[in-house]
Design brief:
Strand content: 15-25%
CATH architecture of the largest domain: 3-Layer(aba) Sandwich
Largest sheet: 7 strands, parallel
Number of strands: 14
Helix content: 40-55%
Low-confidence stretches: none
CATH topology of the largest domain: Rossmann fold
Mean pLDDT: 91
Radius of gyration: 22 Å
Strand order of the largest sheet: 3-2-1-4-5-6-7
Shape: globular
């Protein structure tokens, strides 16, 4: 199956390189595409620790792991990587930071020779065939942490088990998010000796310090105006959120919607949707220079703001869940003790979603009518809202500890590679 994968990759390679060359003409992105095509490699290191996460969410976990690992192994240089430029921007400042090359045969080996890693740590479900095979063939231990396999995708993993089983069998360590995830990994060939349930690292991501007064001043609203944050929205969801917002404004005329699309390249499309719904969106990046416009809909057009903005919300909606995208993490608003809503598609965060629902800190919604009705109840009743927010926060606190367990899992392998 790997041979078929590489044959298809070989056929696609000229088109991928042409695409990279086209986008790499932009001087601001030239380095990114040089790294993607392995023409620019990370700075050389000796016996490093390589941490890799796909995009923004996984990059936050790389950052969470990097600090404790640095404390435990101060003489061990670190390399961190991501698949996307947005993920790269969220990675910690360590000895080497880069975008991982495309998964073409031979590319991982070029990186491995530069980093000389004592351990490669992959986050969640980064099952890249050539990266895993070439790392293992080089004798470098492999760890998959915060590991998960979505139940909805198991039929695909089983259908292509000839590809995935040999990959999973190569991992020396798998720190699964839950017992269900561990069972799914075992069914695809992970040995019981490599499997440990460490929990979900996202429960351990500290809620950022929030200066509510400063945030309200930046948004340009008084403390009596309520804020609804709709975060990580995906195509097809903004229209539903805006419809619900229109309904809510009839009962809560001072309500402000803070809308944060998951991908910034969609900002102009979302801006057009907001205008089509009858509102004039204000860009977060321009708020401080535009004090004259009325604050109705604030559109988040910069990276790294969402976790903080949940701290000013009265209620929250977490996107990627009304449409079949698998959902995004509900733990940021929960950590901020904000009652939250999400749709029916939460496969990627099934356990946290279930825990939050059972505790009363979250509600599942299906459409604009559900969304507005649920938000209305919380907006109208401060006591009910505060109890739901506290319940959400309690779920996060009750499941902390995955970071320490993950460090304890990795430490013996790192120590074995120490001189």
């Amino acid at each position: 199956m790997l041979a078929l994968y590489n044959t298809l990759a070989w056929v696609a390679k000229p088109f991928v390189f042409a695409w990279a060359a086209w986008h790499g003409r932009d001087p601001a992105r030239a380095r990114e595409f040089a790294q993607r095509t392995a023409r620019e490699l990370p700075d050389p290191l000796r016996r490093s620790l390589w941490l890799h996460g796909a995009s923004v969410g996984e990059a936050r976990l790389v950052s969470a792991l990097s600090g404790p690992l640095r404390e435990a192994f101060p003489r061990c240089p670190q390399a961190v990587s991501a698949n996307t430029s947005t993920g790269l921007a969220r990675l910690p400042e360590v000895e080497a930071r880069f975008i991982v090359p495309f998964d073409f045969a031979g590319f991982p080996t070029r990186v491995l020779k530069r980093l000389d890693p004592r351990l490669l740590v992959l986050i969640e479900t980064e099952l890249w065939p050539n990266l895993i095979r070439e790392t293992s063939a080089a004798g470098v231990p492999l760890a998959l942490v915060n590991a998960r396999l979505a139940a909805a995708k198991m039929s695909r993993y089983r259908r292509f088990s000839a590809l995935y089983r040999p990959l999973i069998e190569r991992f020396d360590l798998i720190g699964a998010q839950s017992a269900d995830d561990a069972e799914r990994f075992a069914s695809l060939g992970a040995s019981t000796g490599s499997l440990t349930v460490t929990g979900n690292l996202k429960y351990d991501l500290a809620a950022p310090h929030v200066d509510r007064a400063a945030l309200e001043a930046r948004i340009g609203i008084s403390p009596d105006r309520q804020v609804w944050v709709a975060g990580s929205t995906r195509p097809g969801e903004e229209a539903i959120v805006l419809e619900a917002f229109g309904v809510l404004r009839r009962s809560f005329p001072e309500l402000v919607l803070v809308l944060a699309p998951r991908h910034l390249e969609r900002i102009e499309d979302v801006r057009a949707l907001v205008r089509a719904a009858g509102w004039e969106p204000l860009s977060w990046s321009l708020l401080e220079s535009d004090r004259s416009s009325k604050r109705d809909v604030v559109l988040i057009d910069t990276l790294g703001e969402l976790a903080t903005l949940y701290g000013v919300a009265r209620v929250a909606f977490v996107g990627g869940s009304l449409k079949p995208f698998g959902g995004h993490s509900p733990l940021e608003p929960a950590a901020a003790e904000v009652p939250l809503m999400f749709g029916p598609h939460t496969d990627h965060f099934a356990e946290p979603a279930r825990e939050l629902l059972e505790a009363g800190g979250a509600r599942r919604v299906t459409d604009a009518s559900n969304l507005s009705a649920t938000a209305s109840v919380w907006l109208a009743d401060r006591g009910l809202r505060d109890r739901a927010g506290e319940a959400a926060g309690n779920v996060v606190r009750a499941h902390s500890g995955a970071l320490r367990r993950t460090i304890d899992l990795l430490a013996p392998v790192i120590e074995r590679g120490m001189p």
